[in-house]
Fold each of these.
Amino acid sequence: MSRTSEHSAKVQSYFDHRVADYDAFYDQPSAFWRWFNRTMRKAVYYRRDQTVTLAQKYGCRSVLDVGCGSGQNSVWFVRHGLERVLGLDISSEMVEESRGLAERAGVASRCEFRNGDFMSMDFSGKCDIACALGVFDYVLEPDPFLRRMAQHAEKVIYGSFPGWSLVRSPLRKLRYALRGCPTHFYRQAQVRALFESVGFGSVHVMPIPSGFLAWSVRDEVEDESA
Ligand SMILES: C[S@@+](CC[C@H](N)C(=O)[O-])C[C@H]1O[C@@H](n2cnc3c(N)ncnc32)[C@H](O)[C@@H]1O
């Protein structure tokens, strides 16, 4: 097994076994935990809302949700102005959960979910905005990953990146490693260089408490929105 496919297999196995935990994060029945998540894990909601903000600003109607997880964001997107979403995830359990969620939410006709490793799966077509939220944390080679997102985006590419912190990062790395999942962290200059090297368009990097949100917009789309 190559280093890349070994890495992917670990990520897939980790998320296949954590669907319920992950989904509970968004769909928390307890008022206390809902409050806790919204207060202590603001970045998760902020990075999701920023997708809709960018879509509105740059006239995006379709979204490619790379690493869609349990589909909570995908469903949120079509409920908040996006017409269509294509969600992809390496975990088949996550994809099943996404399909069920979209059915229950009554938006299944506007959502498509497919299972596979984004880097090796076979699919064609483009969406207006391609996003990867909470995904670069688990990506071994971010350059080709972002490049592939760019190939499937008409207007905007957008991702979240966990920042490097002297105390939190090693602890998080260890916590995940003990469960067999590799994690990766980023510095601001690295995120900017990553987006610039793809050469998609203008680059924006926004520091947030947990790391960075970064996006790139095609020059003509940026000009039109000015
Ligand atoms: C932390 S979850 C984030 C889910 C969702 N984007 C959100 O913000 O709630 C990361 C997801 O990325 C998926 N993932 C990681 N690497 C992937 C890859 N190479 N191809 C497709 N999905 C991937 C995982 O299976 C997992 O469901």
Amino acid sequence: MIYSEFKNQKLSKLGFGCMRFALDPKTGEIDQDKVNAMFDIAIAEGVNYFDTAYPYLGGKSEIAMAEALSRYPRDSYYIADKFPGHSLTAPIDNIALFHVSLRKCRTDYFDFYLLHNITEWSLKYYESEEYHIIPDLLQMKKEGKIKSLGFSCHGGPQLLEDFLTRHEGVFDFVQIQLNYLDWTLQDAKRKYDIIVSHGLGVWVMEPCRGGKLAVLPEEESAKLKAIHQAAGGDDPMPSDASYAFRFLQSLPGVKMILSGMNEVFQVEDNIRTFREEWPLTDQERETLMEIAEHLKKGVPCTACRYCCDGCPAGLDIPELLRCYNDYKFAQTMTPSMRIDALEEDKRPAACVGCGQCSHACPQHIDVPSAMAELAEMYEKGPHWSDQVRMRSQSIHEDLRK
Ligand code: SF4
Ligand code: SF4
């Protein structure tokens, strides 16, 4: 296993993400025997970092993770958990909720604790004096119940930069969605550079983009196979996922790569990839970037902003086009979170279709059509604001127990 040094700790570079445990098909509950078996293999091979979050699997991930880890000494592994400030609609007793998570995880401290999901939507809650989240968590850190404090972030690079600048010295690490596709699609390179420039550790989520980079289209996978065979590589061919992980291993600021494993074969394959340093060759890296370009859908906006000044609706066109590209790649919640955070008159439906932007655009993008399509995709949902209402209810129920 390869390890990262972080604040005098030796962290396995592969972290076990506990977001997608396998469910028993008969009961619909988490298959605890399978979780235990996967943890046993991972721990035997040197994995020592386990990442959960209060809302994962309807609140049951914390419990299943703790059950599997309870068979090992507490000082032989690191636990990361997250505070669900992104799911609140009113202030709560933050410290009581923190203790709910401690109880569920059967521990009296978290090695790593994160503000879950800083975005354009959640920022106002996380920074609200009334919600008092950051001061309460700093108090928990002072009391030794949190060893390292960080946050996960699905927001844009500017939000990340501004948030880190306003809270310089508060956080120890930042978790972002990073993979060779989002390196350009979600501007993850810029986010990576920002985190490193603030002297913090980069934690990676979605290394395989929800599985999309783990099983590539045949013609893309064939390119990697050809390189492997030309170099006289062994059989069987390394998995597509292994290339995604090796891309991340080669970034020096990356301290932790989380993989949400729910099958034994995934654990075994990942362990093979992380057994020792396995840098990409230049040719492999170039091929991955080429594959990323082929996988992308949507419009080639470079965020030059030439179109913005003349927009009569005052829309942040490149930001909306980034949401558009995200939707076109996969129907996830991330673009909805960003659009939900905008005032009604700054959402794509506010586009009046004047076409000024297309005339100004050096890439000749048909922006009005993209805006109309984006408005439609956004309207269809799912909407982050609806999720928040449901999640907030269950937090209040947990606190009443
Ligand atoms: S077409 Fe829409 S986005 Fe483009 S300038 Fe006009 S209002 Fe703004
Ligand atoms: S001018 Fe074109 S490329 Fe530049 S930000 Fe606007 S849409 Fe994107």
